[in-house]
Amino acid sequence: LQLVLLAALIAVARAGVIGAPAFVTPAAATPLAYAAPAAVDTDYDPNPQYSYAYDIQDALTGDSKGQQETRNGDVVQGSYSLVEPDGTRRTVEYTADPVNGFNAVVHREPAVVAAPVAAPVAHVAAPLAVATPAYGHTIAASYYG
After folding, report:
1. Mean per-residue pLDDT, 26-48
2. pTM of the model
C-alpha cells in the first residue's frame, strides 16, 4: 500500500498538480528559475507621432544651436545645427524609415567674421632729445610717425 501511495504521489508531482521541487545546480547551488510570461505593455502605440524643437542663442557664451524633429509612425525627419569652435555652422538634415534606414546630409557654412574696423592713427610730434653743445647751438629732434 505504501509503495502504491508513493508511486501515485510521484505521478501527481510529475503532472504538475503538486509543485515540483526546485533543482539545484551543483556549481552555483542556486535553484533554477522558470521565466514568467512577459507582461503586455498596454501603453504601446503602434503609430507614434510627435514633433518638437528648440533653439539656443546665448550671446554671453556664444552658444548657438538648435534642433527640430517630427515623427509620424516609423518615419522620422529632422535637423540640428550648431556653431563649431572654429566659427563654422554645421547643419545636419536627417531622415529615418524602415525602408531606407537612417540617412543624414551635412552642410557647413563658413564662419561669419565681422570686418575689422581700422582705428585712427594719431601722429604726435614729441621731442626725443634736446642737447646744448658747448658751442651755444640748440638741437632738437622729433619723431613723426
Report:
1. 72
2. 0.49
Single-letter amino acid code for the residue at 93? E
89 is a domain residue? yes
- Rounded Cα distance between 97 and 71, Å, is 10
Span 2-27, average pLDDT: 58
Q: Residue 49 contacts by C-beta under 8 Å, 6 or more apart in sequence?
A: 71, 72, 73
Domain assignment present for 90: yes
On whether residue 79 sits in a domain, the answer given is yes
Residue 83 in domain: yes
Using CA atoms, how far residue 56 sits from 40, 62, 64, 124, in Å, is: 40, 10, 5, 48
Domain range enclosing 63: 49-110
Instruction: Report how far apart, in Å, the C-alpha atoms of 69 and of each of 19, 80, 85, 94, 132 are.
Output: 53, 9, 25, 9, 83
Instruction: Write out the E strands in 1-145.
Output: 49-57, 64-72, 75-83, 89-97, 101-109, 126-131, 139-143
**What tens digit of pLDDT does each residue of 120-135 get?**
655 555 555 555 555 5
- Cα–Cα nearest to 91, from 55, 48, 117: 55
Domains in the chain, number: 1
